[in-house]
Amino acid sequence: MSGTAAAEHRIVVPTSLPMVSLLGSGDELLRAVEAQFPDADIHVRGNEITVRGDVETVALVERLLDELVVVLRTGQGLSKESIERSAAMLRDREAETPAAVLTHNILSSRGKTIRAKTLNQKRYVDAIDSHTIVFGIGPAGTGKTYLAVAKAVQALQAKQVTRIILTRPAVEAGERLGFLPGTLSEKIDPYLRPLYDALHDMMEPATIPRLMTEGSIEVAPLAYMRGRTLNDAFIILDEAQNTSPEQMKMFLTRLGFNSKMVVTGDVTQIDLPAGTASGLKIVREILDGIDDVHFSLLTSRDVVRHRLVSDIVDAYGRFDAAQSAGTGNRASRRDTRPRGRR
Length: 342
Known about the structure:
Blueprint: E1 6-12, H1 19-23, H2 28-36, E2 41-45, E3 48-54, H3 55-73, H4 80-91, H5 98-102, E4 105-109, E5 112-115, H6 119-130, E6 133-137, H7 144-157, E7 163-168, H8 184-202, H9 207-214, E8 217-221, E9 233-237, H10 245-252, E10 260-265, H11 279-287, E11 293-297, H12 307-335
Parallel strand pairs: 6-10, 6-11, 7-8, 7-9, 9-10
Antiparallel strand pairs: 1-3, 2-3, 4-5
Helix pairs in contact: 2-4, 3-4, 6-7, 7-8, 10-11
């Protein structure tokens, strides 16, 4: 720390808060804080935490611990992942506080509360509240579909809409529908299974068949949307990277009165036949500047699955970038060759 002003700060944790909830079992959470700020010297004695280091680092650790205490006071627990995300938000000097993100409840159901876990997820959820059409674009594991379904269930329960419509393009990825066993419904069901899974996480399983029979919940392939006008509905189009531009236009123009649309997808996982453009890849350019349409972009930092998923997403991103650069270089070399006769 030579040449850097040193600082020391003492934080007194309220006695009403068990220190183990802040430090973790076997000090696991304390080690997570230390891992985020390796230059800080953190000591715990009773309910007092002393932090030493350079001025900026000490201030960040102090803010982080204050935010974690606020989260704990709401009755929510902490994890190593929530500490890592909170530290990243503070380093990035975001306007939203980590506590505001981590305690933002979306839906309470079946004994658990669904919340945004990252800043971009909260912004995505807030955009759904404030816009009629929202696009959630990002890699696998960022909660695009899950959070959209949670908002749909919330809207249905609050009687803001009278029905939920969940749809996906039934794109053949490896197997042809005609060769799969069973009826058309049985062939299509595997494509829609992730949507059913999300619903079962958020509603009593026994109520879902009744709501589907009543028409309050509809899960159907995208082709079933053609020719309809969808009023008083919360409509989710999942896996939208597998729509053609014509299908995307068809879906968006189904919007009726008092309805919301959320379109989710990952432009790095397109299963369309070669030569077919993805409607999701070009829709942002088409709708740019249109009021009440919002694009939420999620990244590998918003992945809430196993830590390795984020690393895998980043690794594939680097590989694709290198491949694109190599293709560009080869094309450039071809373009600079003499064009005279051989």
